[in-house]
Inverse folding.
C-alpha cells in the first residue's frame, strides 16, 4: 500500500498528484488499475471480505450505486476524518 504522496504512487499509476487525490486507486498484480468504487471492490476482493464483496458486486446495479456512494464519501473525506491539511501532507 502506498500513500498518494509517495513518488512511487505517481510512477506506478502514471497519474498526477491531482488525479490521485480525486479517487482511490488500486493496481492489481497483473498491472490492471481500478479507481473509486471499483478500487474498493478489488481491494475487498483480495481480503478476508472477498466472498461478501463478490456477492455485493454481482447484484444488479450494485456498482452504479457503489460509485455514487463512493463519490459522496470521497467528497466529504476531509469533513469525515481529516483536517484538510494533515491528510494531504502525511506520507506512508
Amino acid at each position: 500500500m502506498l500513500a498518494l504522496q509517495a513518488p512511487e504512487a505517481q510512477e506506478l499509476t502514471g497519474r498526477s498528484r491531482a488525479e490521485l487525490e480525486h479517487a482511490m486507486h488500486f493496481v492489481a498484480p497483473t498491472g490492471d488499475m481500478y479507481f473509486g468504487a471499483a478500487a474498493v471492490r478489488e481491494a475487498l476482493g483480495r481480503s478476508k471480505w472477498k466472498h461478501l464483496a463478490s456477492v455485493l458486486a454481482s447484484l444488479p446495479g450494485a456498482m452504479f450505486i457503489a460509485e455514487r456512494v463512493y463519490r459522496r464519501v470521497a467528497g466529504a473525506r476531509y469533513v469525515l476524518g481529516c483536517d484538510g491539511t494533515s491528510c494531504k501532507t502525511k506520507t506512508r
Residues 7-89 form one domain. The longest strand covers residues 25-27. Strands lie at 25-27, 33-35. The two ends are 8 Å apart (CA to CA).
